[in-house]
């Protein structure tokens, strides 16, 4: 008998989580744009509320369209399940709120998306949750930052802005030695380039707004549980996660780890976090993101192909000071990238313009304003190519010295390479580089 | 809850209700028995329904599985003796048994050994006998990841391979795999060997005195419905139900249909 196989990535991208609906046979995922679902009778209602039967009650808690997306990302990541949220930020907040209370502590990579940094640095301390930020390349520093009240290690597969490659196996080892879960934001890599759960991570989150959707029409987030972390293991993690290993009076006195050893986190996150904080994804958004996920393998391959051509072009261009991309031998994480990201290091990277006569900031402005194909905006991961010049936009108030402290130069430009013809993109960049030189 | 069986700590999930609340109920206690390398959580929905509808529920982690540390048991006969001891320890002189796959063999043998104590047996994903392929046994012994993959693929129907889980947001292929991964090394091979070695089921069926339900999935590759025909003949009055489209992992693929079949059966047990 041939060795049995589960479906592979490309097939799961199109099919996981959905079978044609039983009533009409719709091949596409139907959009169940409804707030609530009719009960068959009183006992059916009670059994749904009490987790005796499976089904949907109210779309803040669950919805059939969202459930397809949740299963699909779980299949692609190799997890046990997922929760769709209103945004990537909502997914991060849901993970934290499910795992810990006031008085807890997080160790996070210093190389984070600005929104995540704001949440951890400024907002969560108001609720009694502190964070220590450490360079993702400093594993000893991360180990040293762990305190008795630490409940989570957090980082991004590719950091911001220097594309620091997260050593997921190394971090997972440190986390697990201390009885802690590792949460990884895999927005820049998607499961096509790396499956962090297979590298040792315990939880994965995405801003689905970016590459998973790809079309730039919907804001959404996803939180995936790998199902391997033992929340009430004797030893290092014992007693650290009472939200998952003790009876919860807010939901039938349920002990979630007892209820489901592999899906305890998801149970609590849905039954408390979605219910009480309410940052649910719209079913219409779930449908839109599903349309993107269906072509994820094809798009990511093209994103990487275009990015490699552009990186090679910029590296050789006389008007470019430097290019930061982990596939380049000079990048600090080049060897790690070869090991963890053999299919590519994403489609977002930065390069630094050489200063023109008017200085680097002006060169950056002239470069941006001369582009015709690249769109000047504050997003990444679109099918269309995007560009931003931090020193004149997101970081325009900062001095050259303050920028440097954040790893940004006045001539730094961030590209998110899309799916256009690579030659058109290179010609567009040449147009900008010429203008920058003349500035 | 934790109880001591034969001097060993044993975990029993009670469906979200205390056993004390249901101890004097007129309805039979229901003992759920999981399959190879799994634990009580494969019965979440069904066990909660019965616990909240007047039954005392004991969804066990068999020795060496889940939270029951010591074990595993090496034969179906040993499982039957242990289940009787569990009923003693929990204080239930009589119960209905619901078993899946290996658990169904344990239920059958328990009903044969202790006919006066068993009110009914529901055998899900059963084949009697239950020969295990040499390739799977070899993999379970020497390459557990490969064995788990074989079981995971064979346990799900064509529809189940792509999901569409009734429980929102859970990817059943991943759930089943992770649950099997939690079993200690060697447990899977011991369990499968116990199934393979249990060859007396058809003879033992003659000793069963209680009502029986044989519940099969039409797309079960691990225990095809035809593998229950001889058992149905050997169990006088057995009810045979086939769930259309379901695979071996029927409790997760068709949880409501499984529950409805159990409700109908246990109403008569």
Write out key terms for the chains shown.
heterodimer; A: 439 residues; alpha/beta; Aspartate Aminotransferase, domain 2; Aspartate Aminotransferase, domain 1; five-stranded mixed β-sheet; globular; B: alpha/beta; Rossmann fold; eight-stranded mixed β-sheet; 16% strand
Brief digest:
The complex is a heterodimer of chains A (439) and B (269). Chain A contains 17 helices and twelve strands.
Can you count the helices of chain A?
17
Strand content range of chain B:
15-25%
Largest interface: A-B, 54 and 40 residues
Domain count of chain B: 1
Please tell me how large the radius of gyration of chain B is. 17 Å
Q: If you had to describe this structure to a student in words, what would you say it looks like?
A:
- Chain A is an alpha/beta fold.
- Chain A contains 17 helices and 12 strands.
- In chain A, the strands form 2 sheets. Chain A has a 7-stranded mixed sheet with strand order 1-7-6-5-4-2-3, sandwiched between helices. In chain A, strands 8-9-12-11-10 form a 5-stranded mixed sheet.
- Chain A starts with 8 loop residues before the first helix and ends with a helix.
- Chain B has 269 residues and is of the alpha/beta class.
- Chain B is 42% helix and 16% strand.
- Chain B contains 13 helices and 8 strands.
- Chain B has helices at residues 19-22, 44-51, 76-90, 102-113, 134-142, 144-155, 158-162, 172-181, 187-197, 201-205, 229-234, 250-253, 255-266; strands spanning 2-5, 8-13, 29-33, 57-60, 95-100, 118-124, 212-217, 239-243.
- An 8-stranded mixed sheet of chain B has the order 1-2-4-3-5-6-7-8, sandwiched between helices.
- In chain B, helix 5 (134-142) packs across helix 6.
- Chains A and B meet through helix 3 and strand 1 of A and helix 2, helix 6, helix 7, helix 8 and helix 13 of B.
């Amino acid at each position: 008998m041939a060795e049995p196989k589960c479906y592979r990535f490309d097939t799961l991208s199109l099919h996981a989580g959905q079978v044609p609906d039983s009533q009409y046979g719709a091949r596409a995922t139907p959009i169940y744009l409804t707030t609530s679902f009719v009960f068959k009778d009183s006992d059916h209602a009670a059994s749904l509320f009490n987790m005796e039967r499976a089904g949907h009650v109210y779309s803040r808690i669950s919805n059939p369209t969202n459930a397809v997306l949740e299963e699909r990302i779980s299949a692609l990541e190799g997890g046990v399940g997922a929760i769709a949220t209103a945004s990537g930020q909502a997914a991060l907040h849901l993970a934290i709120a499910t795992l810990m209370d006031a008085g807890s502590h997080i160790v996070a990579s210093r190389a984070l998306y600005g929104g995540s940094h704001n949440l951890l640095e400024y907002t969560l301390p108001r609720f009694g949750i502190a964070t220590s930020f450490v360079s993702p390349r400093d594993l000893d520093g991360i180990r040293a930052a762990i305190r008795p009240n630490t409940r989570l290690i957090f980082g991004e597969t590719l950091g911001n802005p220097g594309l620091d490659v997260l050593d997921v196996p190394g971090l997972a080892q440190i986390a697990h030695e201390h009885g802690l879960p590792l949460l990884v934001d895999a927005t820049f890599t998607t499961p096509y380039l790396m499956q962090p759960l297979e590298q040792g991570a315990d939880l994965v989150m995405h801003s689905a707004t970016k590459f998973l959707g790809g079309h730039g029409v919907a804001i959404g987030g996803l939180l995936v549980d790998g199902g391997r972390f033992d929340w009430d293991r004797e030893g290092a993690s014992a007693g650290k996660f009472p939200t998952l290993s003790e009876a919860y009076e807010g939901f039938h006195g349920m002990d979630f780890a007892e209820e489901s050893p592999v899906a305890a986190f998801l149970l609590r996150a849905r039954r408390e976090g979605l219910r009480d904080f309410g940052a649910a994804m719209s079913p219409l958004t779930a449908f839109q993101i599903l349309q993107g996920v269906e072509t994820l393998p094809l798009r990511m391959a093209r994103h990487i192909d275009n990015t490699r051509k552009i990186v090679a072009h910029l590296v050789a261009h006389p008007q470019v000071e430097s290019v930061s991309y982990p596939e380049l031998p000079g990048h600090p994480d080049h060897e790690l990238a070869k090991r963890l990201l053999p299919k590519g290091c994403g489609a977002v990277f930065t390069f630094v313009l050489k200063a023109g006569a008017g200085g680097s900031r002006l060169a950056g402005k002239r470069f941006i304003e001369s582009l015709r194909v690249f769109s000047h905006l504050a997003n990444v991961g679109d099918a269309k190519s995007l560009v931003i010049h931090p020193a004149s936009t997101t970081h325009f108030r900062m001095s050259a010295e303050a920028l440097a402290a954040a790893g940004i130069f006045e001539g730094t430009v961030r590209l998110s390479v899309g799916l256009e013809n690579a030659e058109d993109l290179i010609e567009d960049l040449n147009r900008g580089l010429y203008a920058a030189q003349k500035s | 809850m934790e109880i001591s069986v034969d001097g060993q700590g044993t975990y029993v999930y009670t469906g979200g209700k205390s056993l004390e609340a249901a101890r004097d109920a007129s309805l039979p206690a229901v003992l759920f028995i999981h399959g190879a390398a799994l634990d009580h959580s494969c019965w979440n929905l069904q066990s909660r329904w019965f616990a909240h509808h007047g039954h005392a529920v004991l969804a066990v982690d068999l020795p060496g599985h889940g939270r029951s540390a010591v074990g595993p048991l090496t034969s179906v006969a040993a499982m039957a003796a242990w289940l009787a001891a569990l009923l003693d320890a929990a204080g239930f002189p009589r119960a209905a048994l619901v078993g899946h796959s290996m658990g169904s063999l344990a239920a059958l043998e328990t009903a044969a050994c202790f006919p006066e104590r068993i009110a009914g047996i529901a055998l899900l994903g059963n084949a009697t006998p239950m020969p295990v392929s040499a390739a799977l046994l070899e993999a379970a012994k020497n390459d557990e990841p490969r064995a788990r993959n074989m079981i995971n693929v064979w346990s799900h129907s064509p529809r189940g391979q792509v999901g569409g889980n009734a429980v929102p947001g859970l990817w059943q292929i991943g759930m089943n795999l992770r649950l099997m991964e939690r079993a200690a090394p060697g447990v899977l091979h011991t369990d499968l060997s116990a199934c393979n070695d249990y060859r007396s089921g058809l003879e033992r069926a003659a000793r069963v005195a209680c009502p029986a339900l044989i519940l099969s999935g039409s797309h079960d590759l691990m225990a095809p419905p035809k593998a229950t025909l001889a058992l149905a003949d050997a169990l006088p009055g057995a009810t045979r139900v086939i769930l259309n489209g379901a695979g071996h992992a029927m409790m997760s693929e068709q949880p409501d249909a499984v529950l409805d079949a159990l409700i109908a059966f246990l109403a008569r047990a």
